[in-house]
Amino acid sequence: MHTFLPLGAAGEIGASCFYLNIEGTGIILDCGMHPQKAGLDALPAFDLIKDLPVDFVLISHAHQDHIGALPFLVQKHPYVRIISTPQTRAIAELTLHDSVSILKEQIGKEEELKIYSHEEIDLLIQSIEYKTYGEEFFLAGYKHKSSEPIKITFFDAGHILGSAGILIEFNEWKFFYSGDINLNHQQLLTGAGLPKTKIDTLLIETTYGSTDSSLLKNWNDEAETFAKEANKIINDGGSILVPVFALGKTQEILAAIWELMQKRKLIQTDIYTGGLGAKISRVYDYNRYVVNYSNPELELSKIPQKNLYDVDNFEDLFKAPSIILASSGMMLEKTISFQLGKQWLKQSKSAIFTVGYMEETTPGYKFANSLKGNKIQITGNDKPSEVKCSIKNFSFSSHSKREEFLEIVKKLKPGNVILVHGDSSAIDWVGASILKNHKGIKVFKAEKGKKITLG
Ligand SMILES: [Zn+2]
Predict the structure, then answer these.
(1) How many helices, marked H, and strands, marked E, lie in the chain?
(2) Neighbours of 375 (CB within 10 A)
(3) What is the mean pLDDT of residues 28-36?
(4) Under a CB-based contact definition with an 8 Å cutoff, are residues 254 and 435 in contact?
(5) Per-residue pLDDT reduced to its tens digit, 266-288
(6) CA-based angle 261:218:61, to the nearest 5?
(7) How many CB atoms lie within 10 A of CB 198?
(8) β-strands 25-29, 17-22 pairing
(9) Going by C-beta distance under 8 Å and a sequence separation of 6 or more, which residues neighbour residue 65?
(10) What is the dihedral of CA 26, 30, 36, 42, to 10 degrees?
(11) Interval between CA 146 and ligand 1 midpoint (Å)
(12) Which of 37, 181, 317, 445 has the fewest beta carbons under 10 Å from its own?
């Protein structure tokens, strides 16, 4: 008998972490940190598996909401075997080290949580085994009941470098976890690949389930619009702040901006990047010939960039028109994009261009949904301030459109579908649409702690 138990990202984007028990062998799919919570609250519900076998962890990709809690899991289960793609492992080395100091600030006072050190991260990274896309491997050597080996294959999920959908096969039974999946091409990454086999259970994300797909533009068209709008600001002497995730969006948007400048569609200006995003760009560069990549000739590190972290005074960013790529993508408090955002509000010639999904509870959502002339209060601690800059929203998506989830279902013909990684309206739309179009499929909304028996 196989069972499935959600430990996070159920009914929200949250901390992705799912426990799958295949006849006694315990496999954890992803081990993320909640992006908007701190301390213990940010972790998956590890208590739910404290008396269950935990043998393997398979990581779909290196975004913090899918891998950030891994060091805490390893504290509780030191002998667990961890497997990811080589790219995810390389990126995790950067991001997990980066989070050591952030966590120290956040959870200094919570005694139940033991903060890990840089040395522990080094050991953890060394212990991660890596498998490339399409390379079949077997989970064996486990001490629990299942007698047959479990076969695993990673598929390119087209979301960020190294992102994988995970196919798990046991005898004739097949389970596929989409991870975060994008069927469409971005500037650098090409779209996802899927298994060419019928699946028994599909575990699928629903990020854009409640978003009307007409709002999610084709990447190339959106890049052209971005250039037109950016040229207006630059011609007026303004600077453009683009909040981006350090991982994924920084690299894709940097590549898009550079190509637009090369084609003379976008006025050549200074581009500012830096910090973790710039380090991750190097991992993209190293891997550009070994993954599906639309333009392997392009080296992100060779694009002329100024280091945002060398700027002593933010006022300097307004002296000449420039484009600033700063993390975090959702402008979370204390991050550089949040601090810069507040400076931008005061500048009438400049603009904030958002380029991706904003959770409703984040400061980024407030920025994105304001207009010039509005008064906004970004957080409870801030005074309301007037929006003097322009604000434009673009959609450079790294997730599939909602109709594409239905396409995936049509291709994989699952008997069961489990919906995760989306808010409740997103999950409702995808669930209802599957039920309407595909008679006979059982649809489950994942609920934290609620076990699903998969036969
Ligand atoms: Zn992701």
Answers:
(1) 11, 22
(2) 10
(3) 94
(4) no
(5) 999 999 999 999 999 999 999 99
(6) 90
(7) 11
(8) antiparallel
(9) 9, 13, 14, 15, 16, 32, 33, 34, 35
(10) 30
(11) 31
(12) 37
Q: Determine the distance separating the centroid of ligand 1 and the alpha carbon of 182, expressed in angstroms.
A: 10
Residues 207 and 141 in one domain: yes
**Which two three-digit tokens encode residue 205?**
């994300």
Distance 321 CA to ligand 1 centre (A): 31
My answer on whether 258 and 366 are in the same domain is yes
In this structure, are 222 and 128 located in the same domain? no
Q: How far is the CA of 60 from the centre of ligand 1 (A)?
A: 9
Q: Which two tokens stand for residue 111?
A: 């005694």
pTM assigned to the model: 0.95
CATH classification of the domain holding 267 = 3.40.50.10890
The 8-class DSSP code of residue 348 comes to: S
* DSSP 3-state percent helix, strand, coil across the chain (nearest 5): 35, 20, 45
Buried b (16+ CB within 10 A) or exposed e, 308-326: beebeeeeebbeebbbbbb
CA distance 217 to 149: 43
The pair of structure tokens assigned to 361 is 């509870």
What is the DSSP code string of 349-395? Answer: S-EEEE-S---TTSHHHHHHT--TT-EE--STTSPPEE--SEEEE--
* Residues 137 and 229 reside in one and the same domain: no
Please tell me the predicted confidence (pLDDT) of residue 141. 57
Looking at per-residue pLDDT, the higher value among 116 and 114 belongs to 116
Query: Residue 61 Cα, ligand 1 centroid: separation in angstroms?
Result: 7
**Residue 63 alpha carbon to ligand 1 centre in Å:** 5
State yes or no: cis peptide before 328, omega within 30 of 0.
Answer: yes
Q: Give the domain range for residue 260.
A: 217-393
Report how far ligand 1's centroid is from the alpha carbon of 95 (Å): 13
Q: Which among 132, 139, 120 has a CA at the least distance from the CA of 29?
A: 139
- The beta-carbon contacts of 298-301 under 8 Å, at least 24 apart in sequence, are 298/188, 298/255, 298/258, 298/259, 300/251, 300/254, 300/255
Q: How far apart are CA 331 and CA 343, in angstroms?
A: 13
pLDDT confidence of residue 336: 96
